[in-house]
Amino acid sequence: MQKSRETNALYKKQDIVEDIDKIAYVLNKTNMHIGVYEYNANMETVCFTENVARVLGLDSLQDKKDSADYKLFKAFLDEVRETPVPGEKDVFCLEKDTKRYIKIEEVTKNDDILGVVMEVTEEINKRRQLEAERDVDSLTGLYNRRGLENLLLPLLENPKELGLGAFIFVDADGLKIINDKYGHSKGDLYLKKIAEVLKGFGTRGSMAARFGGDGFILFLYHHDTEDELLHTIKALHYIQDNGTACLGDDIRVPLRFSFGACMIEERADYEGMLKIADERMYENKRERKKAQSSQENE
Questions:
Q1: Neighbours of 44 (CB within 10 A)
Q2: Which of 88, 190, 207, 257 is the most exposed place for a label (fewest CB within 10 A)?
Q3: What is the dihedral sign for C-alpha 232, 233, 234, 240?
Q4: Antiparallel, parallel or unpaired: β 205-212 and 215-223
Q5: Mean pLDDT for all residues in the chain
Q6: Phi and psi at residue 68, in whole multiples of 5°?
Q7: Catalytic residues
Q8: Which CATH code is given to the segment(s) 2-125?
Q9: Is the pTM of this model over 0.70?
């Protein structure tokens, strides 16, 4: 009986080897980084195409395509599966330093296990680059509205991570004057200078985005005390009245903007904070224009 099982396992292994050789022939014609492996629960070895060793980075398997110990092979795959890539199905990080990504899929039928391993590093990196570009404003390098909301909305649902903070709407002052006097390229540079002020602003958590046109959003969070938060906002007040921007060609202009702030405890939802901060920004802009007009008339 034992001999009969061993004979059946041998025939099964021969069948698998023949199937693997056929699959390897087809895959080699595609020039794709795909490897296939197969084994039977009654076998002690695993059979696989040559690309399996290449994809998994296992040089020791190169010369053992029909004799590798399947238990060791399975243990290696189990270890790889301990580093899944968030947001990706059946994709795992193979090497943490170089960030190689592979996809592993298996199908089990009776006692046979058929698996496919694929190198998907280039695909993952390209998609992440497209997603990053989709969420970033091309002019300023800040997040765009979509990118801000993707980060901010989940954060607003986790009050413990927020701490004390404020939602600030910023709007450039005098952009039309700069466009008319120096040209739109200088106006774009003026907006980039404001973006530089907002990016990484403060000593605690912050994120900045270009909201469109000459409008920006600055979100401050993770402050420990109200005094600390107010001190950060006070620094923004100072910059809006004392900042300067070099636009090249010996052009130096005052860097001016208006802003309105909504504290998180006033309104924790995104749309509500946006509305309050926007209204306060326009109020600040009107006050600044009025003050400027009074100074010019003196």
A1: 13
A2: 88
A3: positive
A4: antiparallel
A5: 83
A6: -70, 145
A7: 214
A8: 3.30.450
A9: no
